[in-house]
Design goal:
The chain is an all-alpha fold. It is built from nine helices and no strands.
Length: about 190
Amino acid sequence: MSQEAGDSPTEKENSDRLIVGRIISGQKDLFRLLVRRYERPVYGMGVSFFRNTEDASDFVQEVFLKVYRSLSRFEGRSRFSTWLYKIAYNTAVNGVNRRKEYQSLAVEEAGIEAGENDTPERILIRNAARDAVLVSLAELPERYRICIDLFFFYGCSYQEIETITGFPVNTIKSHVFRAKKLLREKLEGLT
């Protein structure tokens, strides 16, 4: 999702692979670096699926326990983040089937801070626009919301989303396209 300061995606991926290699070689304490790097996006996915902080926190622990136990099976054919998000996604889907419906990460990311030159009018307009986007996102079919989240909020490519969700790439492209079209139509109706 977000990059550490100064890390390009390639540098981050190389760093992830190096850390994984060292953990597998016995430097188990380095796992905390991966947790620190990916805890926030995994937590965001947990909030999206479970809609409360307690379940999301439990989800994060469960995901990182699974990742730690499976680390030796990471073959490096995909980015480490893609592999991790696939584990998180599968864990969430299995959990949500027993619990609740998926809610977009946009809700988690929706907090808008007032700028120095913001007037009460601007804040009100921006909050109304944010609320309209959130309502429109919530009305999308779940499969569209998942693809939109992974594409926009997690920065995953179509191929990575395929790896994570198991949806074919053309289906993902179609879901993202249709979701954007539906959002545009819903939001145009508000102006």
